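Schema walk-through. Below, the input block comes first and the output block second. Nothing else is stored per chain. Lengths vary across the set, and this one has 138 residues.
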Amino acid sequence: MNGNAFVEFFLRTPLQTLMGDTMLITVTGRKTGKLYRTPVGFYRDGECLWVMTSRDRTWWRNVCGGAKVKLLLHGHEAEGIAEPILDERTVALRIGDYVKHIPMAAKSLSVRVENGMANAEDAKRLARERLFVKIRMD
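--- output ---
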């Protein structure tokens, strides 16, 4: 069992509350129609869920232009419309929000925090490597 399979299994148990803001996202392959499931961290901002991922990952490409996704969120199934946010300037600004919502993530992302704000240069650098997927809940 690989790491993702273990997390997926764990998210389906009553112990999923120990995983905090981690959910399982299921996307449909645009070309193949195959279902792809992956555990992702997220934060909620209003009615939207925001997922930061690496530009090197491939799952997010299946939601370009907006696509329905299924979620296993805090033990409950849900649906939403997901779309990637690729613009580096927008991603850098969103990184600032990410660090506000998940302050302990700053260190692992190598983002310095000054007066409660993400360092602009660090956010700009990270935006070249990362993107966000915005999920509007149905």
